[in-house]
Design brief:
Blueprint (H helix, E strand, L loop, with lengths): L1 E2 L11 H7 L5 H7 L3 E3 L3 E2 L2 H5 L4 E3 L10 E2 L18 E2 L14 E3 L6 E3 L12 E3 L4 E3 L14 E3 L6 E3 L12 E3 L4 E4 L13 E3 L4 E2 L15 E3 L6 E3 L12 E3 L4 E4 L13 E3 L4 E4 L13 E3 L4 E5 L12 E3 L4 E4 L13 E3 L6 E3 L12 E3 L4 E4 L13 E3 L4 E4 L13 E3 L4 E2 L15 E3 L6
Parallel strand pairs: 7-9, 8-10, 9-11, 11-13, 12-14, 13-15, 14-16, 15-17, 17-19, 18-20, 19-21, 20-22, 21-23, 22-24, 23-25, 24-26, 25-27, 27-29, 28-30, 29-31, 30-32, 31-33, 32-34, 33-35
Antiparallel strand pairs: 1-2, 2-3, 4-8, 5-6
Amino acid sequence: YAWHDRHNRHDRHDWNDSHDRHDRHDWHDWHYRHERHVWHDQHVVCAHDVCNRAAELHLPSEERNRRTARFQGEIWRPPGFVAEHLFGSMPVAGHCGNSGPRVVGIDLANRMIVGQLVPELGSLSQLTSLNLSTNTFLGSIPATMGNLSRLQTMDVSVNMLNGPIPDSLGNCSSLVVLDLSSNSLTGPIPASLGNLQLLHQLSLAINLLSGPIPVELMGLSNLTHLRVNGAGLNGTIPADIANLTNLYWFAAQENGLMGSIPASIAKCVNLRYLELGTNQLTGGIPPELGLLPNLLRLDVTNNGLSGAIPDALGDAGSLSQFFAANNGLTALPAGGFSRFESLTSLLLPNNRLAGSIPDDIGSMPLLTTLLLANNQLSGPIPASVGQLQSLTSLDLSGNQLSGPIPASIGNLNSLVNLQLGANLLQGSLPAALGNMSSLQILALQQNMH
């Protein structure tokens, strides 16, 4: 709430005291004495519409059981608008008539509120924005929320909500942003969410959901962000994800997804972040991913992927981070790394990579982290590794690398962490290692002398 300038002449008006002085808490008369209420975007608002049991908001107190909406804090106001903090009680009944002004926005994010969402929220017919994130709202999401046909943004993330996601949310046809993440919601994702054709951002991450990603969501052609990471899902990634041509971020890590990564995802040409780590995915890395011109991050860590890393992946010219640790991958790109020049992080430890490290490993000038530990790589460490001037961490331990440590490693002035232990390296230490002024960790144990 932000009150009109005339409120400034009534410093820190106490609603609770006013309520006690007026047995019937006649807010309507009070409203006329103070002329106007302002709520978000300078819309005039009727206090009774706010209080018509739209939400039971409780701060911890001895009065928690009172049928009032309790809150404390400074709420958003238009730029340049001066208002005091609001305190005390708000009645939970009353109305201003059908022709009066209505609530269009509620922003009570991060207000330390404890309470429940009540069904009367669904009666705020003009509501376009609801942000109750980062509080301690308990209980379920009322099915009456589906009545809010004008609602564009709904954010109730980081609370303690439980129960199912109501099917009725699929009736909120104006929704652009729906964020239910970081709660304890259960049950499947309702197929009815596929009706939200204006939806751009859908976040259901970090919940206790079950079942697959509904194929109905693959019809949301405007979707840019789909975040279901840590949501408890299983099943496969729908091949119809190809329909999401505006998709920018797909986060589905830390679930129980099975099957292969669909090659059709290559049609999501705007995709920048593809995060599929910590699932049960199998098969190979589709070479079609190289057709994603804007892909910045590919994370398939902790799965059951196998086969060689495809050369074509290097055609994803923007690829900066490639994380594929803890899989069953068997070979580095046959054509080397010359097509991966945008990489900054290459994390491939704990696979079954065999063969030698390509001589052109030094063709990635932006690379800061190179982790190839605990594989089956053999042969020498290429001298070209000394060309990786941006490198800060190099871990080649736990392989079958042989020969001497190349003196060119001494050129890596930014290197902080160098681990070459548990290999078959031999010979003397290059004197150039003394030039590595940033080096903090040097591990060479379990090699041949």
